[in-house]
Amino acid sequence: MTSLPPQSSPGPSPQPTPPSSLSRIRIGSAPDSWGVWFPDDPQQVPWQRFLDEVSASGYEWIELGPYGYLPTDPAVLKEETERRGLTVSAGTVFTGLHRGPEVWESTWAHVSDIAALTQAMGAEHLVVIPAFWRDDKTGAVLEDSTLTPAQWRQLTTQTERLAHEVRERYGLSIVVHPHADTHIDSEENVTRFLDATDSSLVSLCLDTGHYAYCGGDSVKLIETYGERIGYLHLKQVDPLVLAEVRANEVPFGPAVARGVMCEPPSGVPALEPVLAAAQRLGVDLFAIVEQDMYPCPPDKPLPIAQRTRAFLRSCGA
């Protein structure tokens, strides 16, 4: 009688493939994700609480936020961040450079203080946000939403001047942030700006939420203008709220109060393809989470930040 060969025992069940490591992406967060829009506002959490909670959420990198919210004395700020395991990735400035040389002195006075603190904290980037044509808090119209050709020339030439001065004096690279309710917003205006500025001086801070808010495709922008992507802000929009905002021409500030910027991964754009496209650029990039929330209850940001950090880890970041 021929014996049957022993049956091989079944091997272990196949395990899901882990997400590929986003080894070139450095994840952080910002005061914006804690509802902080202004240096001092009674609706915002104290800066000590922001630092405690951003650290507790598992982030290691932060931005300075509005100048004057965090301590402006570098020695104090270094002590406060280092004991929480935090490092500054960038400072942020607001500019109205399309208005021409006459605003240069006031712009530089604003920029230089922030650039000095950014440099002192060991960061290498300065996020530059163009002036709002509509007030970000009240929604009041401040100027025309469309620039003239002359204003476009001033915007591009003065931005290059700013980039040169910031690099020469402070060793920082500027990254210009397309933003809703500014003149650098849609795909058309972003590409026009990039095509008109020197790539050796001016890079982009691609904010995925603002770009989607204004109808842009972040993955397409990364794949088309990859050499100009110097920094990322990770954000999503709620498509249902956005449709209502667009239909009713709601200004950005009130739109945020309605919840147009939502917790990942419930909105658009999907962040996994954005991060994968950024990784394929083969350069080190900061990807700073910014969920616009103003105003918001003080206990709301921390659990969102913790869930968002866990979600980004599941993406490999």
UniProtKB/TrEMBL annotation:
Segments for region (Disordered): 1-25
Xylose isomerase-like TIM barrel domain span: 51-314
Superkingdom of this protein's organism: Bacteria
Biased composition (Pro residues): 7-19
Alphabetical list of Pfam families matching this protein: AP_endonuc_2
UniProt-recorded name of the protein: 2-keto-myo-inositol dehydratase
